[in-house]
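Job type: complex structure
Entries:
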Amino acid sequence: MIVAVASGKGGTGKTTVATSLALALGSRSQILDCDVEEPNCHILLKPEITESYPVNLPVPSVDKEKCSLCGKCGEVCQFSAIVLIGQTVLTFPELCHGCGACSILCPERAIQEVPRRLGVIEMGFVKDVEFVQGRIRIGEAMSPPLIREVKTRINKDKVAILDAPPGASCPVITTVKNSDFVIMVTEPTPFGLNDLEIAVEAIEDLGIPMGVVINRCDIGDSDSKDYCARKGLPLLMEIPNHRKIAEGYARGVPLVESMPEYVDKFLNMSDCILNNKH
Amino acid sequence: MKIAVTSTGKTLESAIDPRFGRAPYILIIESEDGELLEALDNAANSGAFRGAGIQAAKAVADRKVGVLLTGHCGPNAFSALEAAGVKVGTEQKGTALDAIERFKKNEIVFAAKPNAEAHW
């Protein structure tokens, strides 16, 4: 089963919830940090990394000797990454999405695919939880291909927990797509609610069931709870703003280690999700 | 020689649009007699997610234009125009007619590099 943890607003507690859920489930679970621009599950989990490999995107390189200037490559490219202009073919590798169409369609077989570095994948363990993260190359604008690569490491025999990036755009959708359930983590403030509504709207088109965790539930108002009731979104857990949790977080300690009584609460939540009791 | 001018409207009296890739119209003008050959509708590019400059450069190069007069030109568009041998005059103001007049009087300083950063 694949459970994504998303939010809308940044800083609501996605990583906090994702890592504690993984630790509570122990050997049954796998955690995959899909926030490849700023992965920080590793700060709370301190995994032992046992394997890592670079991830590249194939981009076109044109052999000018073989090119007949037919222009088919540019016609098929949706992203203007390759174009026939004047008497030459130009490529713009940073626009390329790596689909390979230009290289397949070239009648002269003049286009080769060369690698453009996207980032790295790192894998390992924390206690008996499998750990995977992607780290994008600084300066790379395109994170979805690296996120897709992280997701190829999903172990279908485990409960795969995906820590999503904040926001509601391509990287988030790429992360949550094809999940079985999405946990939306929010805070009970106008900011949290505003961004939750946006993210819910973005994700509900995917037809994936969602539930909400209200983190620091005692710091704000009840509008988020009312919104969940109106939208029919199950309220999975409410976590008060315990000083112990905040202190632990500030030192990089996961929630279920700061307050072990929460292990059962996370197990109850996962039971609801896994057994469709929401 | 054919000259392209980025324009807010379809006529020679229209104000120049400072953008290249996302200008609503690109006017193709014969420099000898100032005849307006084509008012290219650039709507498809104006709304493009990315690659607007590259596509506009291709449209201009395909029409065998020798000079582009506009406000700003980003790095991808500039590379594309350079590859096609199109000279670029930036920071142009006024109407298309004004720009053509400046060209005929050799008052255009052609850009050696882009004068806008890459942007979406």
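Summary: Chain B has a mean pLDDT of 94. Residues 52-62 of chain B form the longest helix (11 residues).
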